[in-house]
Amino acid sequence: MGKELLGKLEWRVNVPDGTSDRLEPEFGPVLKVWLGLKSLLEGFIRKIWKFFKKAWDIGVAEPKKVIHGVKVGLCISIVSLFYYMRPLYEGVAGSRTMWAIMTVVVVFESTIGSTLYKCINRVTATFLAGSLGVGVHWVASHSGENLEHVILGISVFLLASAATFSRFIPSIKARFDYGAMIFVLTFSLISVSYREKKLLEFACQRLSTIVIGTSLCIFISMLFCPIWAGTELHQLICRNFEKLAYSLDEIVTEYFKDEKTLKASDENCNKRILGYKCVLNSKATEESMANLARWEPAHGRFNFRHPWKQYLKTGASMRDCAYCIETLYSCVNSEIRAPPHLKKHLKNMCMRLRSTSSIVLEELGITMKTMTKSATIDILVAEMNFAVQELKSALNSLPDHVLTSQSSTLDASEDVEKIATTPFTEILPLTTLVYLLIENATKIERIVKAVDELAALAEFKPVADKKTIYRQSMVKLTPASNQDV
Amino acid sequence: MGKELLGKLEWRVNVPDGTSDRLEPEFGPVLKVWLGLKSLLEGFIRKIWKFFKKAWDIGVAEPKKVIHGVKVGLCISIVSLFYYMRPLYEGVAGSRTMWAIMTVVVVFESTIGSTLYKCINRVTATFLAGSLGVGVHWVASHSGENLEHVILGISVFLLASAATFSRFIPSIKARFDYGAMIFVLTFSLISVSYREKKLLEFACQRLSTIVIGTSLCIFISMLFCPIWAGTELHQLICRNFEKLAYSLDEIVTEYFKDEKTLKASDENCNKRILGYKCVLNSKATEESMANLARWEPAHGRFNFRHPWKQYLKTGASMRDCAYCIETLYSCVNSEIRAPPHLKKHLKNMCMRLRSTSSIVLEELGITMKTMTKSATIDILVAEMNFAVQELKSALNSLPDHVLTSQSSTLDASEDVEKIATTPFTEILPLTTLVYLLIENATKIERIVKAVDELAALAEFKPVADKKTIYRQSMVKLTPASNQDV
Fold first, then answer.
1. Which of A191, A223, A255 is the last residue of a domain?
2. Does ipTM come in above 0.85?
3. Do residue A179 and residue A296 come from a single domain?
4. Do A169 and B202 touch (CB under 8 A)?
5. Cys bridge to A286: A315, A353, A451, A468, which one at CB 3.0-4.6 A?
6. A330 touching chain B per CB within 8 A
7. What is the pTM of this model?
8. How many domains does chain B have?
């Protein structure tokens, strides 16, 4: 008799005494081991498959990562080709290949800024450590057989300790971290090889192969699908503006949505609402990008001395805004629901402030994206501030509202004047939301200031004619109260 | 006539016609250059001096950074000593020194977790790439003179591209980023040196020297003043608890301070108030520490499989709390001052909630620090929740309060009942502060949950007897309303 139990096929035999025995399949030990191995193998293959699936997804989502891989492969192949005819271990000359390949593998990074930073650090540090090493060698070799080792040993110890410690100093860490490491490496290597004649040759060789390797890296990374750290940083900031605007928009809308439709919002939308969380966590990325962008030459719309530091200031003020939105979101998720009549009283003003705020954020995003000074940002900010004022006055009429709406339901014939008030705790999330919206407007103004400074420093062009018309028509489309301002 | 103008000494001569001529000191071109050089040199020396001053300060503040430098110097000196008798370029054997020194310089990191991660990655990747390289070589050398180069070239290109791309996959990046690089490096190096006999020797040599270098690194980093990534992470979390508690305490106190004493708070205190900002920005540090701590063996109070991932969860919930405190701080800094009578009405309850909240945070800090389950945390949380309830009821009596306090000043004989209300915008920061304090309590409860999970996973000991007595006396000291709960 076959019986399917919880999706598992089981065989039972009815025994004459009325009970039924389960027939367990009997496996020999060999079969058991085989089955165990099989399931292990299947699990392994499934894991590998999942891994490749993920890798494929990443490759499809960000093709530039695949391109970077191909570029590195190409670069290493070219270096190998260079030296293919001269195998690695034919004495001293052969070691050239090794240094060149090593340089390419270690130095080739995904962004040009990062590659340049490593290249320049590597070449400079090798040169400095090489000269110093040869100098110390000269001193040591002229101080007698016994002192020689002592001088070399002490100099290695002192310089290695000092250079390693210097990597903890912020100004060194930001710009010369890699250089300090290479300095220690080169100096130690040179101090170990203590016959001066070959030494100079060795130092020159190491420098020349490193120069070959680095120039090839720079050449290939700039020539094929270049990825600039500066551009990445710029795009990150632009994207973050969009995310902030979208999150602010959706979170406030969500709060004032009818209860019925609240659950209808799909998951995809929910994910996009949380876009502001990217802004919360972007500090480390922004800092490293800005650090690397400094090494990059002029490219695209960015000059050599593009004010990357100002991007960090802009990013910081955007994060302030994101903190505000984070708290805003917790208000929206609060279990306490404000009484509908109060919500209704404030809804229009809140929605108005929300839309003016997010329009300002979007406009800032466009300013950054197009790198042109916005012609309408002042008007938009004024509109936002007007919405703040309107919301404030709507709010000031709230205390009466809290009372009257409820007292109207009371029996008018009652003698004692009892005024039933809405418990304050119930309106707390609503008032907090209002406060945070107003606070957020101040923070957005600070972002506007930061972007203005950036525009001045980076010499953003004033807006083009066509653009102005488009923007102005946009302003007209929104039923703005410009005249009132 | 000497005349000091804006702190600059100037010589004037009165000419007979009544005007005065300024006497400009005349310098020859040589003197000018000399003065220019001198000021340049002085500036340079001042900069260097400043740099050394800063380095000194860092060294004094964190001696373990200096110790790390000394350890690296020591390790390199030992490796150099090892091979001092066998100079670098005596054919193949000499290259051993180089690999060992290189390994030490590249692999020796400040924390043991980081050193182990690099060591294990380096050895494994070298072994894998070496075996694969020798295998590919064998295949290539058996496929004829022409095909050999093609096979080698293609294999280098493909493997280098794939391994480089794999470094973008999060699971690889977190654990094997360095290994992938070393894999590419070793494989490329082996494929270039294409005579099989020396090849095996070369591969073995590279592996053996790397093993020597790595074991020395591990030995020294563990033996002298070890710095464990796990311990650092643990201490970071403990410190962050203290910072959160202090910030919360001070910020709320600052808000309810009298206006007169407000400005009196000194700068040092202001700096400590901003301690929560460290928590805001600690995500990247926590993640990298937790990643590295996984590589560490059992040490101190931490087992090999200590739940480092749970630290990240705890850290995330602490950050949520810090976001709340950030907004709280903006309320305190708001220009709108709530009317004093309202402030007074809520002050006691707010201060009570503040102190119970920060006591919970402190208790969590102690739980983490001592790694013992707290006996009183439940009582403390209950107290905090009771304070929330009290604050809520105080709040619910606020609407009457808003009215009555003002209406009492009205003329009683007036016919039309006009109730003068405090404008709502004025009490907005106050109500937001209250809301955020209540919200913060929920977030603290979430932290308590995360720490509880951590305590269960890490098998924290139950509190010791002596400890319990101490804690209980602490509870008694605070005039708690335990009976009411």
1. A223
2. no
3. no
4. no
5. A315
6. yes
7. 0.81
8. 3
